[in-house]
Amino acid sequence: MAAGNLHLPVVDLASTNLRASAESIRKACVESGFFYVSNHGIDDGLLERVFAESKKFFELPLEEKMALQRNSGHRGYTPPYAEKLDASSKFEGDLKESFYIGATGNGNLQNDANQWPSEEQFPAWKDTMKLYLATALVTCKRILSLISLSLDLDAEFFQNIGAFNCPSDVLRLLHYPGEVNECDNGNYGASAHSDYGMLTLLATDGTPGLQICREKDRHPQLWEDVPHIDGALIVNIGDLLERWTNCVFRSTLHRVVAVGKERYSAAFFLDPNPDLVVQCLESCCCEAYPPRFAPIRSGDYLKERLSATYK
Ligand SMILES: O=C(O)CCC(=O)C(=O)O
Ligand SMILES: [Fe+2]
Q1: Residue from 4, 57, 14, 56 nearest 34 by CA
Q2: Which atom of ligand 1 is nearest to the CA of 200?
Q3: What is the CATH number for 283?
Q4: Ligand in nearest proximity to the CA of 207
Q5: Is residue 53 very low, low, confident or very high in pLDDT (cuts 50, 70, 90)?
Q6: What is the pLDDT of residues 19-35, one digit of tens each?
Q7: Domain tally, the chain
Q8: Tens-digit pLDDT profile for residues 260-292
Q9: How far apart are CA 246 and CA 292, in angstroms?
Q10: Nearest residue to 238 (alpha-carbon basis) of 167, 153, 189, 186
Q11: Which residue has its alpha carbon closest to ligand 1 atom 1?
């Protein structure tokens, strides 16, 4: 069960006091790797349309959804049990079903793998998802410039090193079932994991279920609820940013528990250009605290993590 007393800050992205926002983000990233953003620039209407399209798709019969099953480029539909975010889980797989969409801007060839539901049945799907991807990218870039400031770097640091030059941004639409079979007692909507990349921007339909564990090596583990806040989105740091910051910023274990109620969410993952080498930032190491990780090409790291999820 969840306990604890989590106080995650809500960072107002419209605030002109960038220093205060950066300080608040730094504290959150050091303590938990999670925070909220308000005035994030994604309007309610667009979020509502994303959730409406998502719901309409997940309501299709399984055979129709399976026609768009996830391909080798990691785009498309994954049914319940297809993914196990916690490799040590004793269950066959997580309860959720998902749909992956990659950004298609800038002639980004790697995203040619996208699969789209039929335009006849889903006339608004493609435009809605593409607009959401583009808008979420803008929001994430704003957050990353505050993160750069919070690390005593130039606000344009990630832009300048080429992280946003054909970034690998992906939207994962998620649907968690309301009722679960008895054999799934104890199974999770999404089992415990940390996100692999740089930054995640998460929108939920308001249904609870998301929990974080700030000390993964502590026994017993303490899981704390991350409640929905109207008008705010959830942000969390991924493993690549943890590597970049030499674990000064935390990529925290999280999961989604079954709450007996259907749940929808949309997770936007921003990962850097696959050729970018992620290596410890100078401001995050010193003689007494040397780099913990070897430099790694972002694309290689993400490929390895993805393949472990689908073993
Ligand atoms: O649905 C959620 O609240 C969390 C989803 C998540 O952690 C993920 O997709 O990586
Ligand atoms: Fe996650």
Answers
A1: 4
A2: 10
A3: 2.60.120.330
A4: 1
A5: very high
A6: 999 999 999 999 999 99
A7: 1
A8: 999 999 999 999 999 999 999 999 999 999 999
A9: 6
A10: 167
A11: 265
CA distance 215 to 12: 27
Q: Which of 210, 223, 233, 234 to mutate to test the pocket of ligand 1 (most atoms within 8 A of CB)?
A: 210
CA gap 89, 133 in Å, rounded: 31
User: Is 301 within a domain?
Assistant: yes
Rounded to whole angstroms, the Cα distance separating 244 from 242 reads 5
Q: Is the residue at 171 inside a domain?
A: yes
Ligand 2 centroid, distance to 118 Cα (angstroms): 28
Ligand 1 atom nearest the C-alpha of 255 is: 7
CA dist 191 and 173 (Å) reads 16
Ligand 1 atom nearest 267 alpha carbon? 9
What string of DSSP letters covers 137-191?
Answer: HHHHHHHHHHHHHHTTS-TTHHHHTTTTSS-EEEEEEEEE-SS--GGGTT--SEE
Write out the residue range of the structural domain in which residue 125 sits: 10-309
User: Which residue has the least CA distance to atom 8 on ligand 1?
Assistant: 267
**296 in a structural domain:** yes
Which residue type is seen at 57? F
> Could you tell me the distance, in angstroms and rounded to a whole number, from the CA of residue 247 to the centre of ligand 1?
21
Domain assignment present for residue 3? The answer is no
Residues with CB under 6 Å of ligand 1 are 172, 174, 190, 195, 202, 204, 210, 254, 256, 265, 267
Residue keyed to tokens 């005593």: 152
- Cα–Cα distance, 249 to 243 (Å, whole number): 9
| Residues sharing a CB contact under 8 Å with residue 197, sequence separation 6 or more, in sequence order | 168, 238, 239, 240, 241, 269, 270, 271, 272, 298, 302
Phi first, then psi: give them for residue 304, nearest 5 degrees. -65, -45
Contact at 8 Å (CB) between 17 and 233?
Answer: no
Per the prediction, the chain carries an average pLDDT of: 93
Cα gap 176→204, rounded to integer Å = 11
Pairing of strands 253-256, 224-225: unpaired
Tell me the C-alpha distance between 25 and 23, whole Å.
5
DSSP designation for 2: B
